[in-house]
Amino acid sequence: MKLCDVEPIIRTTVSAVIMLIVFGSELVTIGQVSLFIWVRLSGIPETLYVIHELLEGEIQMGRYIKNFDEITILKVIKAYLVDGLSHRKIQREILDIPAPDNGGGYIAMDILHHYGILGIHKSILSDNNFEDAIDEYTNIKTVLVLLEEYIELEKEAQKKIENKDFVVDSKTTVVKRETKIRINQDALRKRILESYSHECAICNINKDDLLICSHIKPWSIDEENRLNPSNAICLCVLHDKLFDRGYFGFDKDYNIVICNKSDKIISDMLTGLRFKKPIRDIPDKKFLLYHLQEICK
Questions:
Q1: Fewest Cβ atoms closer than 10 Å to its Cβ: which of 46, 121, 123, 206?
Q2: Dihedral sign for Cα atoms in the order 171, 176, 177, 181
Q3: What is the pTM of this model?
């Protein structure tokens, strides 16, 4: 008998074992049932692996949730409910975790299922109508209220920057204080990357995951200018670290100044580089002077 002949039998047997385990547990949830059915359909090797994990008592819904902070979780939920992205795409683009085409995305799915978000909920907020969604999907009302607050804070942060209100209000509301700070930082990062055309100001690195919204006068020192786009420069991860640690700065004409901390290797690496002015939000010279005097000591 060929493998292709016995595969349906194996799959049926595996499915029966899974359902026996699931319905024999007092801790079963809809999310768990969904996960097990999804794994069954993903292929024999993956399914047998899950059987092993189940027998060892390793698989629990929400096992990955503790690995992510609130804002990352909210981004995952928004991507699914508002943008309608697949589990795989969410896992790749938001969680930055590989997700193979065959059976990938289970970590993103695990996060969503932890909050009771299933396939029927995908894209329910594509029109951003939270009021109707909250009335209709009462079982996930709590997470919908949290997501609504998150999206409103995103809009508020963008408006603050546009209105030149650069002070961050980090008072706790529905979301955590740390999440509110991150929302504001993300809004500033988005603007700065756009201002520099998604490219490092002094080299040709143009991959978003390698670009940093680098503060000139540190966030912790100047509360009045935390969201000021003129207090930030788009730099790649390497040049951001060198700038942040005071290995180089910029003079009033935006020329690169190699500071005393730099050795020959770093000096040679920076020599010949030129600052590329952004399409908007040119760095304020008073912040650059502060950086030269206080950071590049």
A1: 123
A2: negative
A3: 0.72
